[in-house]
Design brief:
By secondary structure, the protein is of the alpha/beta class. The protein is 32% helix and 33% strand. It is built from seven helices and 15 strands. β1, α1 and β2 (32-38) form a beta-alpha-beta unit.
Length: 241
Amino acid sequence: MHLNVMICDDLPEERNTLARLVRHYAASRQIQLQLDTADSGLHLMSQLRGPGQWDVVFLDIYMEGMNGIETGHRLRQVDSQCALIFATNSQEHGVESYELRAADYLVKPFAQQEVDNALDWCMEEQRENWRTLTLLSEWEPVEVRLRQIDYIEIKGHTAHIHMNSGRVIQVRKGLDALEAEIDSGDFLRCHRSFLVNMASIQRVDRTDFVLAGDVRVPIGSQNGARARQCFTQWVMDHTWR
């Protein structure tokens, strides 16, 4: 199991303390950890490449410049599914953190057990979002997170799997087989040669789904109405109420 965590706090001692608690959690559960840190909201946003980069983001609320709530809103514009855990000295912003679909709200100083409980909850609730797919690319197994896939395009007999990091993984497999392996309601067969992750779609125009960077995934003419209807329903189902 892999866990990608971001800790954003403008106080070095607070970042270091939380990093130590998160590392202890990962070691105790034999989880492979990728840990990033930021000393401000702007620093965090400068490191953000796209949705799926971090599984869990710890955000301090009271930071100089862009505070944690503002950072959370900007992060949510890019990644609607990562788990947000607010770490602060006061419960004053509890309602705002709820509106951002925060996974937890930890009041400093917090103990190892509190961090463990918050991450355990995230691990259980986000299990579907953190599912992985193992692919054989150039005779080497590659494990990828489903939510880090933007879309899959078939060219000839090769599937080109476009990740939100910009990486493209090529595998000798058909779209039917990949769609069956992924088996997720987040993915839509919008064209006979394309499978798109609806969480990556930013808008829809006349002929395409448009992703970040104006990347376009075509909507097949034969199933265009169905594809648009499926995406509209997906958006409604995933709107926070």
